[in-house]
Design goal:
With 236 residues, this protein is an alpha/beta fold. The protein has one domain: Undecaprenyl pyrophosphate synthetase, CATH 3.40.1180.10. It has eight helices and six strands. Helix 1 packs across helix 2, helix 2 packs parallel to helix 3 and helix 3 runs parallel beside helix 5. The longest helix is centred in the N-terminal third of the chain and has 21 residues. It is globular. The structure holds farnesyl diphosphate.
């Protein structure tokens, strides 16, 4: 789709949901849904960044997701490790900068190694940022931010929105547009600070089927939204 006459958000957030149900409805194991979701994410992430969006933040694994069965957690951690090593060159070739948000605790050495490699290799890329939230909780991000500010002995008079944004896991602009797939209407502890003024978009499609056409439809809807940030246009 031609994006020239559309409003393009600078920062898109995606709460990807429905991998398990996608697989279940097809009589497959949940893990097949995750594999398909990961495949889709690669195509979708690159498509979104090619359309002028500057940052895409995706909720790959919440801190709460550790409560899932040991088998599913192990499968996902291995899938992340495999995908990040496989895609090391492809993200770099596409000039995409990859960053991670979340706590490092509970992640294996092997996974942390490939995450660090991906971050280092793509650090100077300029074709957009893919922020992968892994072992992520927005409340933990706020707790960690407060601790860092405290450790740095920052005076209260210095604390404002800009400084807080600097002390988050990554210094990113606010999210303009949040998409959640699979018919769930929750924020689930995702980037609460950055979502303050976001337009919210919920759709029924399970994430593995949320393709580039579905994203185009979401952007058509975003283009129609009137973002006022608390102001009123009295001339209307
Ligand atoms: C969402 O569906 C699945 C997750 C949040 C965990 C795994 C995410 C991926 C495999 C995609 C990202 C991949 C990479 C490589 C970063 P769900 O399991 O919550 O589905 P359900 O609600 O239908 O059970």
């Amino acid at each position: 789709m031609d994006y020239n006459n559309l409003k393009v958000p600078a920062h898109v957030g995606i709460i990807l949901d429905g991998n398990g149900r996608w697989a279940k409805e097809k009589g497959m194991n949940r893990t097949e849904g995750h594999k398909e979701g990961a495949k889709n994410l690669k195509i979708l992430g690159k498509y979104i960044l090619s359309k002028g969006v500057k940052v895409v933040s995706i909720y790959a694994f919440s801190s709460e997701n550790f409560k899932r069965s040991k088998e599913e957690v192990t499968f996902l951690m291995n899938l992340f490790t495999a995908k990040f090593s496989e895609e090391l060159n492809s993200f770099h070739d596409d000039n995409i900068k990859v960053v991670f948000s979340g706590r490092r605790e509970k992640l294996s050495k092997k996974l942390l190694y490939v995450m660090d490699k991906l971050t280092e290799k793509t650090n100077h890329n300029t074709g957009g940022i893919l922020n992968i939230c892994l072992n992520y909780s927005a409340r933990n991000e706020i707790i960690d931010m407060v601790k860092k500010i405290n450790n740095d002995n920052i005076d209260n008079s210095m604390i404002d929105e800009k400084l807080i944004s600097k002390y988050m896991y990554n210094e990113l602009p606010d999210i303009d547009f949040l998409i959640r797939t699979s018919n769930e209407y929750r924020l689930s502890n995702f980037m609460l600070w950055q979502l303050s003024y976001a337009e919210l978009y919920f759709c029924k499609t399970y994430f593995p089927d949320f393709n580039t056409d579905e994203f185009d439809n979401a952007i058509l809807e975003y283009t129609k939204r009137d973002r006022r940030f608390g102001k009123i246009d009295y001339s209307k």
